[in-house]
Structures are given as C-alpha cells and as structure tokens.
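Handout, section 3.2

Students often ask what a structure token actually looks like in practice. Rather than define it abstractly, here is a full record for Glycosyltransferase. The first block is the sequence as you would receive it.
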Amino acid sequence: MSLAISLHMLARAPRPGRVKTRLIPALGPEGACDLQRRLVEHTLSVSADGFSQRFLWLDDGPDAELQALAEQQGWTVVEQPAGDLGERMRCIAALGLVESDAVMLIGNDCPAIDLDYLAQARAALVDSRAVLGPAEDGGYVLIGLRQNDSHLFSDMPWGTEQVLSLTQARLAELDWRYELLPVLWDVDRPEDLRRLASLGMHLR
C-alpha cells in the first residue's frame, strides 16, 4: 500500500533573545540564535525522499536566508497558524490531510532524525493510524497521523515530561492503533551541545 504523506516542520524563526532561551546562559543571545538557524538548516538538509510535499512552518514571518535554502531543497515555506502549540499542530495536521493520505509533523530540535528514521515512520503509517517518535525528555520529536483529532493536541502540558504518555493515553481512548519509534534526543540543555559536536555540528 502506497500512501501520499506530507512532511511538516514547525520551527521558530531565528531571532536573538527569542529562541533557545534556556541555552542563552551558555551561548549568549546571538549564539543561541545561530544554533537555532543551524538546527533548522540541518533538518532541511535531511534527505526526505518519499514525501508527497514538504512544508516549513515558521512562527515569526519570513526569513529570507532560510526561505531560499528551503525552496532550493524542495520545501514550501509558510507562516504558522494562530494559537498555542497544540492548536497550531492540529490546524497544520488538518490542512495536510486535505491533500495527502497522512501527515508527519516534526520540529527542528532533533538533529538525530535522519532518512532511516523518517522511513521507519512512513512504514509505520501503512498499518497504523498514528506513529510517535519519543524524546528522552518525555515528549516526542515526531508525530505521524492518518486521521486528525483535536483531543491529541488540546490541553496538553507542552514542554513537560507528560506529553508522550498523555498522547499515548489519548490515542488509546480514540482506539487508534499506533506505533512507537526508537527514542531520540533533542537540543534543550547545555549538555546537549556536546552531542551536537559529536555529530560534527559546530557553531559559527
């Protein structure tokens, strides 16, 4: 069975003082901004063959440098819809499902997402209504859906260690079959910077 799956990356536009704020004490506002840009660029560069469409959803208007890079690599750049994170994700999933059989939402904070991981997620959606990529901190780095339901996104304590377990509980309440991918790490804390260096990502 072949599914048309669209890939959607939600990212904050790199603005000094407004991104990666927990890393500002270690990197400074400009360094944290540079990190955000590097992470978005890295995720854009991950080969994403197998997706019907790819969208970069920025939260703070256009960024000419990122837009040029994204379009060069086959992504469409759009502004995120209004609302809290859950409402934005719900809306993006709903819009994606209008033109594709399934949607996959990722952020830019997980440099460990690669071609193989995305392929695993696509394969999972053939037999399941949802797929989740767990994060070490108790959230998730990827969610793929063949259906949309606001219950998955509303009243969610985003940024806490409860997000994954609550999402799993809500999937069970909906009686949706889902699959879990291997656990990955994302970049939130100063100690994560050493992991970035091990991947060959060094800040300018």
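Discussion prompt for tutorial groups: The helical segments are 24-45, 64-72, 85-99, 115-127, 163-174, 192-198. How would you have guessed this from the sequence alone?
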